Every structure is written in C-alpha cells, then in structure tokens.
Amino acid sequence: MDASTLLKKYLTKCPFAVLTQAAVRGVIADEFDDLFEDNRSQQYEGVMTFSAMATAVADVVLRFAENFRQGYVSHKEKLKVSLTSFYNKINATELQTSGAVVSRAAQRARELQDQLGFVPWEVVKGYNVYALDGNHLQESDKHLKPLRLLHDAPLAGTTVARFDLQRQLFDRAYLLEDAHSQESTTLDRALEDLQPGDLVLADRHYCILSFLAAADNKRVRFIIRQHGRFKGVLIGKRRKIGRTATGTVYEQAIQTSEAADALKMRRITVELDVPTRDGDTVIHLLTNVPAEVDAMTIADAYRHRWEEETGYYYLTTTLTCELASVGEPKAALFLFCMAMMAFNVRQVIFAALYAEHDEETVNDVSHHAISVEVARYSDGMLVVLDESFWDRLLSRHNVADLLLSLIHISEPTRPELVSRMPSSA
C-alpha cells in the first residue's frame, strides 16, 4: 500500500494526529537549533542537538511518552548520548531559551493563521489586547532522592505568561526559577514587550503602582483589578453607567495620591449579581484607557482575562505541562514552555478548521478528544509515515495549504470529537 493511500486511511481514522504532525513541523520543528543558538548564554550544543532533545520532550508534552526516560528511549539514536547526559542537558536549559520557544512558536503561529485567512477576534476596538497571568508549577515528588530529607517538597518554578486574546496564543513566557518569587517581579520584562497602544488585562496582584505609572508613561493601556491595599484618592462622584451580563457598572475618577503629579485613572466598579469564587460581590478595575472607550466596554473586556486561565486549563488537562518527577526548575520550566508551544500549534489547527467550517461547529470541538486521538495514534502512524515521508510532503506544499488540503479529505469535526468544555474550567 503506497504512502498516499495510508495517509488517507489515517485521515479517516485519526485526522488530528495527521494535522498535528503537519502543524508541528510548520510552527517550529525546523527552527529549534537556530533558536538555541540565538538565545543561549552559557549552554553549548555538543553531540546532542537541541532539536533532538526538544523532540524527545515534545513526545512527553503530546503524551506519546509518560516521562523523559520514555522520550529518551524513543529517540535514542538521534540523541546519540547517554540517558544521564540527556537529563543533564534538559536540567541545564537556560530560561531565556525556554522563553524563546514560546515567543518563536507564537510568531510562526500568527504567520500561519494569517495565511489560513484567520480573522483575529476583536476584544476592544483599536487595541491589541493581552492577558497577563501566572502559574506556579506543582510540587516535586518527594520520592526523588535529593528531596527525601526536605520537610516540604519544593515547587519547580513559576511561569508568568502573556496571552494574545485576539489570536488565543501564549506569546510570551516570563520564567522564575525561584517559585517563591513574586509574579510581579516579571512586570519590567512584560512592559518591555508591550508597545504604545497595547492593552493589558491583569488581576489585582499585578496592581503595582510603579508598573501602572511606567505603563502610562509608555502609553501602554491597562485594565487591572484594584488591590485592596491600594486605596488611592477618589475624585468627584461615582456615576452609574448601566448593566452588563454580570452586574451593575459604575465609574469614578481616582488618582494614586494627593500629589500634583499623581497618576490619574478611571475606576470602573462592577457590583456583581453573583459573587466570585472568592466570595467578592464587588470588583474595582483601574484603567488608563481613554474616555472614548466606555465603562461598559471596559467591564466586558476584563472578563476576557479568564480566557488565559482556560488556556492554562487545557495545558493541564490535554497536554503534559508538568511532571511531579521533575524537581529541577529549569527542566520543569522548559517542559511547561514546550506545552505552551504545543497549545499554539493546536491553535493553528483550529484556524484551519475555521477556514473550512462554521464557527459554532469548530467552537464545539473537544480539546480533550483531540489530545486522546493524537496520543493514541501518532506513535504507530509515525512508524509507517516516517520522517522522510513528512519531508517529501512538506517539500511539495506550504504548511497552510497542506493543512487545508488535509482537512478537505478528512472529517475533523465528526461527532465523537464534539463536546463542550467542562463547566469547571
């Protein structure tokens, strides 16, 4: 049976396993070694290439392998080193290299979305809107020999990620090797990556006055929940604006202090119909968005911040972004960044689906079902359709056209893959 016939069979049985292989190669597969060379500081590339190591780790992320050891066994010939050397390489992965995996994948994913004709969603007209939120990696397994004498199992690090809400991509990762560092210590780096006219949404632990002032000075816009420790100086009367789907909206001016040069902002208050999961009945939002964007729009925009948490939910439930057996922070953070890369790959596939199917149908495709299908069928498929097959296929098609052609001859929105995201997300 020739390769084209086999491909069609796999497209009928497991289209997302095929689409994932094409998209992975289109997003970053050929760029790992260049990425490493562009971002490394002290780490060097020896017998084992960075791309070979990343490919083995990707097997763990996509659930072809349960852990790093299994990933190593599957790629031992290409890795060309001992298991110990493989672990040492992962454990030494520099944070800037891990972060670059996310930003490079997002850049390429944007390019492919554009080629696929994907139209970014509009959150606030005229602004590029990003959510900023952190994730503390889980505790390491205390059965690991170096950790047995510790009273508490250590955390393996923290990731603060920027999430492009228009395109649903993780596009920056600010990594903290010390998991007990405050997430707010990454704000200087986050501000460097924001441009005038960008709009960032963040929760109250990012309500740092120095950051708000610096952002305003750079003409970066923000909608950030007011922290209880910041009282500010309210100006004038509070005005009732109207109602949103979640409650009643009010607006009032506020400034950071009585000083003449104090930062002046708008405070948007939402008196909620239903308390938050923390029991809050009122939330206050601080913003420097100009008055032409009304308070109702600002209140509604802030609700999009939860989409980043949904992204984290999918990293946890449909990919392997953490392993309790990994106690080395650099290795754990690299794994998490590879999972964000895989999430961006999946968003390229969804962009291709939007190009061929109606939005409601695509919105109902289950991330979990995709993950199960990819994990179940990819390993066997890659034995039959090996690297040489994919090299030939991609030499004849650009990735965007290939994805569209593969969707044309498959059924990626068949009923068993359609289900709503669990409400607990």
Note down, in words, how this protein is organized:
There is one protein chain. The protein is an alpha+beta fold. Helices cover 45% and strands 16% of the residues. It has helices spanning 3-13, 15-27, 32-39, 50-61, 68-74, 76-79, 83-91, 95-115, 187-193, 209-217, 295-302, 306-318, 329-356, 359-363, 367-384, 387-396, 399-408, and strands at 128-136, 158-164, 169-176, 198-202, 221-225, 233-243, 247-255, 264-272, 282-287. A 9-stranded mixed β-sheet has the order 3-2-1-4-5-9-8-7-6, sandwiched between helices. Helix 2 crosses helix 13 (329-356) and helix 13 (329-356) crosses helix 17 (399-408). The relative contact order is 0.16. Residues 147-153 and 419-425 have low confidence and may be disordered.
Concise description?
With 425 residues, the chain is of the alpha+beta class.
Could you state the oligomeric state of the chains shown? single chain
The helix-and-strand class reads alpha+beta
Uncertain segments are 147-153, 419-425
- Which strand order spans the largest sheet, edge to edge or round the barrel? 3-2-1-4-5-9-8-7-6
Number of helices: 17
Rounded average pLDDT: 89
| Cα Rg | 23 Å
Q: How many DSSP E strands?
A: 9
| Separation, N- and C-terminal Cα atoms | 44 Å
Question: What is the string of SSEs from the N terminus onward?
Answer: HHHHHHHHEEEHEHEEEEEHHHHHHH
Main sheet characteristics: 9 strands, mixed
Proportion in helices: 40-55%
Give the percentage of residues in beta strands. Answer: 15-25%
